[in-house]
Amino acid sequence: MKNMKTLLAAMAALAIIVPVPPAEAAGSLVRIWKAPIIFNDGVMESVLYVGGSSAGTEGYDPLEEGDAYPGESMSAYFYHPEWGRGSIAGGTDYYMSDIRSLNLPQTWTLNVKDTLIDRDVAVKWNVDGAKEFMRCEGLELVFTDVATGASVKIAGDTSYVYYNSSINPMAFTVTASGGDAAALPAPQNLASKPGKGQVALRWDSDTTVVGYRVYKDGTLVSGQTLLTDGDGDGKVEFIDESAPKGRDKKGESLALIYSVVSVGQNGCEGAPAAIEVAI
Q1: Sign (positive/negative) of CA torsion 27, 220, 268, 63?
Q2: Beta partners for 151?
Q3: Distance CA 200, CA 188 (A)
Q4: Given CA atoms 2, 126, 76, 58 in this order, what sign does their dihedral have?
Q5: How many percent of the chain have pLDDT more than 90?
Q6: Could you check whether the bond before residue 272 is cis, i.e. omega within 30 degrees of 0?
Q7: Nearest alpha carbon to residue 76 among 131, 2, 11
Q8: What are the CA-CA distances from residue 15 to residues 36, 52, 78, 116, 277 (Å)?
Q9: What 8-state DSSP symbol labels residue 56?
Q10: Which of 54, 86, 132, 144 is the most exposed place for a label (fewest CB within 10 A)?
């Protein structure tokens, strides 16, 4: 039976764009990719997550780095004593996820300790949460067995098998390279005009892109049809008629975060332009 850490980790949603928690950033979108690396010795299974986020750092990020507690027959973990949490009460130096910034290249070291020896261990991965970065930004992931030097490109149809001959931890790396986060620039001169129950947005049109999408607090509000400069005046407009009509229960202004992204010929989105609108 899979251990509890694996079940809990598997419940984590993999997404390319998610709402930004208030503590993370003032913008409305976080660009993120995640890829679970799955180790299975035929009896136990353990999962580690590598990834990148526009709200992530190279250090400890409480909203992304989940703790791991090695001790079962199979334990997979990232070891980060430099983060300084192991010396505090309830802290740990062992993690089940390591989500960094979008800066590339990046290399993760994965450690796997398995007390069930003299057996093959299968290593698989799921790239669903990284597909858009792979397709749109050229993200490439490579899994390497440190002991043998064997490398495998991480893709939807690849996997790896190693032989576990010792209870000592085995080390592997995942390397991320490529990427072009600035392939499409953010829309320029984004402005807003709030009204009763609606917010009008307006920005400069760019003839090199196919169209635009608008997100409100991380949720698409412009529909499936791309927005374009319909009248040829060099501007694109969008009116959100789902905005709240009044203030909150305390009579204070409500703040909405809108983001506008360009969409290229390949259907990929560019960097967002964000604006906060008080109503």
Answers
A1: positive
A2: 144
A3: 16
A4: negative
A5: 72
A6: no
A7: 2
A8: 12, 11, 22, 34, 26
A9: -
A10: 86
β-strands 235-240, 219-220 pairing: unpaired
Residue 63 C-beta-side C-alpha neighbours within 13 Å: 16
Distance CA 33, CA 51 (A): 5
> What pLDDT digit, counting tens, does each position of 219-267 carry?
999 999 999 999 999 999 999 998 876 665 565 668 899 999 999 988 9
Following CA atoms 79, 85, 87, 92 in sequence, which dihedral angle do they give, to the nearest 10 degrees? -50
How do residues 170-219 score in pLDDT, each as one tens digit? 999 999 999 654 568 899 999 999 988 899 999 999 999 999 999 999 89
pLDDT at 20 over 70: no
Residues with Cβ within 8 Å of residue 1, at least 6 apart in sequence: none
Q: Which two tokens stand for residue 81?
A: 């004593």
Rounded Cα distance between 112 and 166, Å, is 11
Radius of gyration of the chain (CA): 22
The single residue listed with the structure tokens 């993690």 is 95
Q: What is the pTM of this model?
A: 0.76
Angle made by CA atoms 238, 211, 229, in degrees to the nearest 5: 55
Residue among 32, 40, 37, 69 nearest 50 (CA): 37
Contact 205, 238 (CB under 8 A): no
Polymer length in residues for the chain? 279
